[in-house]
Amino acid sequence: MTTPSKAGGVIGHARYTYRLRVSSTARTALLAEWVRCRWIWNECCARSKKAYADGEACGPARLDKMLTEARAANTWLREGSSVPQQQVVRAFASSRAKALKDIRDRLPQRQRAGMPRHKKKRVAAPSLNYTRHGFRLKNGRLCLAGGISLTVVWSRGLPAPPSSVRVHRDNLGHWYASFVVSATVEDLPATGRAIGIDWGVRETATTTSDAHDLAHPGHGRNAAQRLARYQRMMARRKPKRGQPASKGYEKAKRQAAKVHKKVARRRQDTSRKWAKRVVTDHDVLAVEDFRPKFLAKTTMARKAADAAIGATKAALIEMGRKHGRDIRLVHPAHTTMDCAQCGARTKHALPLSERTYTCTACGTVSPRDKNSARVMLIRAGLNPAGADRARAAGPPVRSRREPGIPSR
After folding, report:
1. At what angle do helices 82-104 and 24-54 cross, to 10 degrees?
2. DSSP labels for 238-274?
3. Which end of the chain has fewer CB atoms within 10 angstroms, the N or the C?
4. Is 113 exposed, middle or buried (0-12, 13-18, 19+ CB in 10 A)?
5. At what angle do helices 309-322 and 247-281 cross, to 10 degrees?
6. Sequence-separated (6 or more) residues with CB below 8 Å from residue 229
């Protein structure tokens, strides 16, 4: 992966996803290709377990040899393209290597990636990966190896020739093509302004600028009544164990999935529009490096999930990298306890019900989240006006301009 050395340089890779119009013939061919790839994945799982039991190695070379032998012995495997099948082997090898690395590093069980699992026929969603030699774009259509031709809904143009593509189907039965292209910096005019951003549940993002605060959108709350209706329908029509589901159950299940999909898209749209506005108006962003996963085990789980803090933070970082802005991730420790005016720290953590921060040292009174947003600026080395004496010590600040940044 590369990082920008100057304006307009390459910053890694980005994905551009488009909807596909799939004919019945193409759908049959895609599903047949997925059956072969799923069989190869499950065969890799079986070989991996056998090698582990026998105390043998099971690296990429051994799995490639297994694929070669399987294609030679099975005519129905040779009927499909070798490109997506090879990519399945590589994906399995990478997943297995990551799991073994976590075991060697003795990471806690909750942080480990886990060994690759068997893909079930009625659970796993079809997903096919093609490298540069396995596809081409001809007259606006996506032509895959094996004679599969798909119509792409070009909602926007590709900035560069793609290096690979992933064709997948979601839980609603819609097909998508996700192209990987080289991403470059799209420069924006310099503004000379900096902003501090604090994440929360009452408001998704509180900033040092009142004009850029992001209120809790509440998309999930607004759709809760319709979702509950379809979930009740599913509960009434749930089939007994071992029996096939009725048409009514499948219809209610699809309607519930549509509601979930619509809420997810609204959250994504809100996050991206807010991120673009923040990045356009500021050169430097001091962002709280907050990880909201622990909120799923609290009484605020539903509201925190509806706020989509993780998705909003990811959209902000992605937009900042795209436009070459300086993003500094600030460790969240004690950000609600420090005073942005004098740097004094309270002796005890403030309860969530207390929304006003009052400094016992200098007497400053300010909204709790606004004070935390100013602390972000101070810890990132961007002291706002009137905060010259603020506490400088604190956890290290990471910059998103450093090498090793995950791409989109």
Report:
1. 40
2. PPPTTSPPPHHHHHHHHHHHHHHHHHHHHHHHHHHHH
3. N
4. middle
5. 50
6. none
51/247 Cα distance (integer angstroms): 44
Is residue 342's pLDDT more than 90? no
Sequence-ordered list of residues with C-beta below 8 angstroms from that of 26, at least 6 positions apart, any chain: 148, 149, 150
377: helix, strand or coil: helix
CA 244 to chain centre: 34
Q: Please report the pLDDT score of residue 394 as a whole number.
A: 56
Using CA of residue 130, residue 15, residue 314, residue 306, what is the dihedral sign? Answer: negative
pLDDT digits (tens, 9 = 90+) for 263-272: 999 999 999 9
The stretches of 151-246 forming alpha helices (DSSP H) are 219-222, 224-236
What is the token pair recorded at 340? 């942005």
CA distances from 142 to 30, 139, 146, 189 (A): 13, 9, 12, 36
Confidence at 392, pLDDT banded by 50, 70, 90 = very low
Report the distance separating Cα 178 and Cα 153, nearest Å.
Answer: 12
Span 363-383, pLDDT tens digits: 788 888 888 899 889 888 886
What's the one-letter identity of residue 398? R
Cβ–Cβ contacts within 10 Å for residue 15, how many?
15
pLDDT at 3: 39
In angstroms, the first-to-last Cα distance of the chain is: 12
How confident is the model over 304-313, as a mean pLDDT? 91
